[in-house]
Specification:
The complex is a heterodimer.
Chain A (H helix, E strand, L loop, with lengths): L10 E12 L2 E12 L3 E5 L6 H8 L7 E6 L8 H5 L2 E4 L11 H12 L4 H10 L13 H13 L5 E5 L7 H16 L3 E6 L2 H7 L2 E6 L2 E7 L4 H4 L1 E7 L12 E7 L2 E6 L1 H13 L2 E7 L3 H9 L14
Parallel strand pairs in A: 3-7, 3-8, 5-6, 6-7
Antiparallel strand pairs in A: 1-2, 1-4, 8-9, 10-12, 10-13, 11-12
Chain B lengths: L6 H11 L3 H23 L3 H13 L14 H28 L1 H6 L1 H6 L7 H27 L4 H28 L3 H24 L2 E3 L4 E3 L8 H8 L9 H22 L23 H29 L1 H8 L3 H11 L4 H34 L1 H6 L5 H35 L2 H13 L2 H17 L4 H15 L1 H7 L3 H6 L15 H24 L7
Helix pairs in contact in B: 1-7, 2-4, 2-7, 3-13, 4-7, 4-8, 4-9, 7-8, 8-9, 8-10, 8-11, 9-10, 10-11, 12-15, 12-17, 13-15, 14-15, 15-17, 15-19, 15-20, 17-18, 17-19, 17-23, 19-20, 19-23
Classes of the chains: A alpha/beta, B mainly alpha.
């Protein structure tokens, strides 16, 4: 965090104390989201945390109840049109006109955004292997997502607001999408990538904000958030591996006779594995922590009174 | 019967989903029949009245498009005037009902979820057909009761009720078949609607070419009438003949259609149709690439249907003008009735004006429907895609308003021109009639635009209730307006609230500017208020 005051220059997205209520439910409860120009910023949170609501407020589709919202230096509620010409958006739920073909829908959205680019459009249709002549209603979920992705990524704009853009895509197409985002990063664009999949954010983003129940609980670079990049290791050893507890960088150690489960920071991984092999490894699985694990272990009981980090370090 | 597993549960689901819709449909239909019955009973008191009004259908073949004369009694006249009209409404209701609970479930993916449970292949179809059976039984009973309550002959009333119920069930069965054919809800309703249109044309041609029995005041239709449910309904001739045997023909037709639907449903893949899905262009044409272009693309089908329907009816009515004046002037009571509605004793002018104001009031529904599509857009999430671009909310909603106004004006202008042209060709003095009726048509616009304004205001202020409130306001204004209020005795203050009551009775009466200016100002005010409320509220998303 660390940015005080209201100096919003250098930020493509800047919200402070943003509150949005729907009747009695509070969707955003003092949200501080800061995205620097030129950054690929991950916006990580479980379903229902307020990611889509945040993006809709940023687009000026929803009216904030209080707080500050600046987008590309402007006010999205009062001046949506000129700001929208500088951004592209992939909605969380892609619903387009059922009787228009995919190609027509892409052309229409790009034209209304004001930045049509035929070459880029055709190139992306080829890369994503989309058949643009099918009617929108006949597309599968993944293909509908592709239509929205192509319409957004083919636009040459400053800011891309991507709300769970890869939902429904197969792994092959996810790779194509990641390549496209990396190209945009190379071109110096700003991207807000909302997701509930940690590995996707890890692969693309330099900065991450984690949202839970309408608030940002943590924000920073991935390096600063070591607990996000830990590896979960589950192993069966021939002798009990009790000495792991002494190793720095090992967390959440669970022991059950010859079965051991722990999280380990990248720097300590090598030592931990050496230690394990000393005890004779019979079986080994490892995986990056899932978002659910992170939320359970790091934020679960810290909220709502202790805002952030208290339990982490 | 494994393939019917779960039918009773789906039956409950269907009734639960339609627990408001179905009673409202049934109640409206019943009231409509009651309104017709009471109006004819009150106006047509003597046999001379009946001779006068029935004569028109004997001498003028094109009057028989909507009904066949079956004799000189009140019941037969009611059937002649309203039998086919009510039948078409019942048919539409059944088409929507069956498609909604079969193909729409498949298109939205609900069917897939249901069928993954203990639900058989034919369960949805069976549930929909069963509900339709119940609904049509209710329609038969309620309409018969209303006719009897208005002192119509009991046996004839029961036959009329049965006739409407049988027509309804026939089109429910047709819809059950078309639901198997196309992949989309719209396609399935469109096909069934086309079937209804074809049935209407066949029965109309049969009536047109029929042989007149001038002594019995009866027309025997030509062969095309024999081939459609609407034709069979006319051949039943409730009140005069009560040909119950036609019910057996209906029953056979319904059974064949439902059997066909079952066979088709058993052979095809869930979620798919039997007709191929057409592909679209890989690039958008230039004229699609603007809000107006998009709106036109999405609504051009509806516009074309309304446009040709209205122009054809207007032209047809104009061609009737001569026979109207000669046959109606024979009865003092009828003359009074028409002149009271039209506001003058010049019968032809009154008749022409009455037709234009009637069609104008109906086309106001088109205006409302065109503008309220913006609501469906927001609900379905497509508005979000547009509003995230450089299109402002005012421009988006403004485009819908502009389209609604222009399309309405186009329909109304062509209505006036068509009716004027055919009147002129019948009576001579074509230029005079065209300009008179064009003016008479144009003065309908301000009152129609008031309903467009109500739609915009409700959309801006109370989006969730916008559809219900706007249509309720329209329905009430219709009931209190000059066309219906003459038939059902509406209190004076209520008549004054209806915008339709303030439209000048052109061409029978001179056009006064004041009411038109006031109506226009109200329309503009409502629209402006709606636009400004829309600017200030949240836009709902699909998620």
């Amino acid at each position: 965090m660390g940015n005080n005051g209201n100096d919003t220059s250098g930020y493509a997205i800047f919200t402070e104390g943003l509150v949005k209520r729907f009747g009695k439910t509070t969707a955003l409860n003092g949200l501080d989201l800061k995205v620097r120009t030129g950054h690929i910023h991950g916006f990580l949170g479980p379903n229902g945390a307020g990611k889509s609501t945040t993006i809709r407020v940023l687009l000026g589709l929803l009216r904030k109840d209080s707080g500050t919202v600046r987008l590309l230096g402007g006010d999205p509620w009062n001046d949506p049109v000129s700001l929208h010409g500088r951004l592209a958006y992939i909605p969380g739920e892609v619903n387009l006109w059922p009787n228009l073909s995919g190609g027509e829908a892409i052309d229409l959205i790009m034209k209304l955004r004001g930045s049509p680019n035929k070459q880029r459009r055709d190139e992306l249709i080829r890369r994503f292997e989309l058949d643009p002549t099918k009617r929108f209603r006949t597309y599968s979920k993944g293909n509908r997502q592709k239509v929205a992705i192509i319409a957004a990524l083919a636009s040459d704009v400053e800011l891309y607001l991507l709300d769970e853009p890869t939902s429904g895509l197969d792994p092959l197409m996810e790779t194509v999408f990641q390549d496209c985002v990396k190209e945009l990063r190379g071109a110096g664009k700003t991207i807000l990538l909302s997701s509930h999949i940690l590995s996707e954010v890890e692969a693309l983003c330099d900065h991450v904000s984690i949202i839970r129940e309408g608030r940002i609980v943590e924000s920073g670079t991935l390096d600063q958030m070591r607990h996000l990049t830990r590896t979960t290791v589950i192993a069966k050893t021939r002798q009990p591996a009790g000495d792991l507890a002494q190793l720095a960088g090992v967390h959440s150690l669970k022991h059950d006779g010859k079965r051991v489960e722990f999280e380990v920071e990248p720097e300590a991984l090598d030592k931990a594995l050496q230690l394990l092999t000393k005890h004779g490894v019979a079986a080994l699985t490892s995986h990056p922590p899932t978002l659910e694990e992170i939320f359970m272990r790091h934020y679960g009981d810290a909220l709502p009174d202790e805002p952030e980090l208290a339990k982490v370090r | 019967m494994r393939s019917l597993a779960g039918t009773s549960k789906l039956l409950h689901l269907t009734l639960r989903r339609d627990r408001i819709r179905l009673p409202v449909w049934l109640l409206s239909l019943t009231l409509l029949v009651a309104g017709f019955a009471a109006a004819y009973r009150d106006v047509l008191k003597s046999p001379q009245d009946l001779i006068a009004v029935t004569q028109l259908y004997l001498t003028n073949p094109s009057a028989r498009l909507f009904g066949l004369p079956s004799g000189l009694d009140l019941g037969s006249y009611a059937m002649l005037r309203a039998g086919l009209f009510i039948g078409i409404i019942v048919a539409l209701l059944n088409i929507f009902l069956v498609i909604r609970h079969t193909r729409q479930n498949e298109e939205t993916g609900r069917e897939e979820l249901l069928r993954s449970g203990k639900v058989g292949r034919h369960a949805s179809l069976a549930a929909a057909v069963t509900v339709a059976l119940g609904v049509n039984a209710c329609i038969a009973a309620l309409t018969a009761f209303m006719l009897i309550a208005n002192q119509f002959d009991v046996q004839g009333a029961i036959a009329a009720g049965a006739m409407w119920g049988a027509v309804g069930m026939s089109f429910a069965a047709i819809a059950a078949v078309t639901a198997q054919l196309t992949k989309t809800t719209r396609g399935a309703s469109g096909l069934a609607g086309a079937g209804l249109g074809a049935a209407f044309v066949l029965s109309a041609v049969g009536g047109l070419l029929g042989t007149v029995d001038a002594v019995a005041y009866r027309v025997v239709p030509a062969w095309p009438t024999w081939f459609t449910p609407l034709g069979w309904a006319q051949l039943m001739r409730p009140f005069s003949e009560n040909n119950w045997l036609w019910l057996a023909v209906f029953a056979a037709f319904i059974i064949v259609c439902i059997a066909a639907a079952v066979v088709l449903n058993a052979r095809r893949d869930t979620g798919m149709g039997l007709l191929p899905e057409h592909r679209g262009p890989d690039r958008a044409a230039k004229n699609l690439l603007s809000p107006m272009g998009l709106i036109w693309r999405l609504q051009r089908g509806s516009f074309t249907g309304w446009f040709f329907g209205v122009v054809v009816i207007g032209a047809g009515m104009g061609s009737l003008s001569q026979s109207v004046s000669s046959s109606l002037s024979q009865s003092e009571d009828i003359k009074m009735f028409v002149t009271r509605l039209g506001g003058t004793d010049q019968l032809i002018a009154a008749f022409l004006g009455l037709i234009i104001s009637m069609i104008g009031a109906i086309v106001a529904a088109f205006t409302v429907q065109s503008i309220l599509r913006v609501h469906a857009d927001e609900d379905g999430g497509t508005a979000e895609a547009v509003l995230a671009t450089r299109i402002s909310r005012q421009r988006w909603l403004g485009s819908y308003i502009a389209y609604g106004a222009l399309a309405t004006a186009a329909i109304i202008v062509c209505l006036g021109a068509a009716e004027g042209l055919t009147t002129g060709l019948t009576l001579g003095n074509t230029g005079h009639y065209i300009s008179e009726l064009l003016a008479a048509a144009l003065v309908q616009l301000p009152a129609m635009f008031v309903f467009g304004g109500i739609a915009v205001l409700c959309f801006g202020l109370v989006p969730r209730a916008a559809v219900a409130i706007t249509w309720a306001a329209y329905a009430l204004a219709m009931l209190a307006g000059p066309i219906m209020s003459g038939l059902i005795r509406v209190p004076h203050w209520a008549q004054n609230v209806s915008p339709f009551s303030h439209t000048p009775n052109a061409p029978a009466e001179p056009i006064t500017a004041m009411p038109l200016i006031v109506l226009s100002l109200i329309a503009v005010g409502l629209t402006a208020a709606g636009l400004s409320f829309y600017r200030r509220r949240n836009v709902a998303g699909a998620g």
